[in-house]
Amino acid sequence: MMMGDSFGSMGSSMASLFFLWATIQQIFPNHLKITIKEFLLSLFQQLCFAQRVSDHFTNLFSPYVEINFPESDKYSFNQAFSAIETYLESKSTDKSKRLRGSQVKESKGLVLKRNEAKVRDVYEGVNVWWEIVVETDGNRYYKLTFHNRARSLITNSYVKHVVQEGKSIIVKNKQTRLFTNNPSSQWVFGQNMWRSIEFEHPASFETLAMDPKKKEEILSDLIAFSNGKEYYKKIGKAWKRGYLLYGPPGTGKSTMISAMANLLNYNIYDLELTAVKNNSELKKLLTATSSKSIIVIEDIDCSVEFTGNRIKKENSSRERYGKEDKDENSVTLSGLLNFIDGIWSACGQERIVVFTTNHLEKLDPALIRRGRMDMHIELSYCTYEAFKILAKNYLDLDGDEAHPLFREIKTLLEETMISPADVAENLMARNHQINVEKSLRLVINTLEEKKDNQKSQQEKKKQKKFKMFG
């Protein structure tokens, strides 16, 4: 490195020669210009040759070793890269001349981090140098430089120390993020497949409006899964879990997913299938997700390829063409199942796959059979138990006898189909002023209206049936 530095002044010497030549152009006559030009060109060639020779000998006899840690390996993110980045950012900032300030949440103070391209570190008395390198195609990698005499210490101990320390800091300071997939036209060399924002949804299982027994069952299952690394290894299954959330709109499917993420501190990958062209793209997207994550496909019944209509469509194609009509430029059920339940399901650990649907009967049985979707969770209309949770959340009323109007609401809930979202809307404080009596009266009025409408619709259906068979 010192030998390379000794030749570093050659660049400035060349710049001086070009400046000298510009001056000569203005002062000397033409015949002298030609002579001087030939001399300068000869000197420039000699300097370039000397530079090439010096570089060769520097590399040949340099006692320093370099290890590169790229940000990605083809389509897979290099976990070591983020661990190294976190480790280097956590190094002491008291001597750093370049810092970066950030505030993750309003409730938290300003965080200062090192913001230098080159960082020196010391490990057991050995100096090492880290440098972030950005290539012309946008790919990044960390370059680690150290003396050859410390090769064994660095490769066997130091690198592992950096990665483990970085990962522990990531877990400690992890902020849950919400990802969504970009169209493949925006992918750059296997990167930029996902974009994300910080996820700050306040949902929790404590505030989730649903039957307490069902809630406890789901909660226990999630905790058992997150602690099940050795168990899944023992039984020879990929460490993943599938949940199917189904029920009418407004019954809390999205809120349930948010509560899951907050409980386990997992990232959410909201997969938009309409932006995926084919199975190959789907595979690349899913393998680029991180461990400790929830992969969500909402309203999966809206995709015709994953519904019961798929069978009719295939039969129609066979009758028309005598063979299956396969669209190679679309995502298919088999492509999705290959990641959920096939050999690709083992690519990554500690992942949860969640499907949501408003119409369970429309889904292809192959998609939701037990073993693929391990738990089928019905999120139904608001019950009295769910209402009590909402009343506690919004009005600070706790218990069966918290208010005299509870009995009337209980009776109406047993006779009326209403979503928890509709009940919550009536309990919401107006202008941030809580009025318990008024809010409960609004709930009662809404329940009575819905009860009358539902009764009227049922009578119309009965009359229609009577006309058909009368």
TrEMBL record:
Protein name per the record: AAA+ ATPase domain-containing protein
Organism: Capsella rubella
PANTHER family: BCS1 AAA-TYPE ATPASE (PTHR23070)
Catalysed transformations (reactions): ATP + H2O = ADP + phosphate + H(+)
Required cofactor names: Mg(2+)
PROSITE patterns: AAA (PS00674)
Composition bias, Basic and acidic residues: 450-460
GO biological process terms, semicolon-separated: response to stress
Alphabetized CDD domains for the sequence: RecA-like_BCS1 (cd19510)
Pfam families the UniProt entry points to: AAA, AAA_assoc, AAA_lid_At3g28540
This protein's UniProt keywords: ATP-binding, Hydrolase, Magnesium, Nucleotide-binding
Residue intervals of the AAA+ ATPase domain: 239-383
Lineage: Eukaryota, Viridiplantae, Streptophyta, Embryophyta, Tracheophyta
One Gene Ontology MF term: ATP hydrolysis activity
Family recorded in the similarity comment: Belongs to the AAA ATPase family. BCS1 subfamily.
Ranges where the record places region Disordered: 450-470
Domain of life: Eukaryota
Biased composition (Basic residues): 461-470
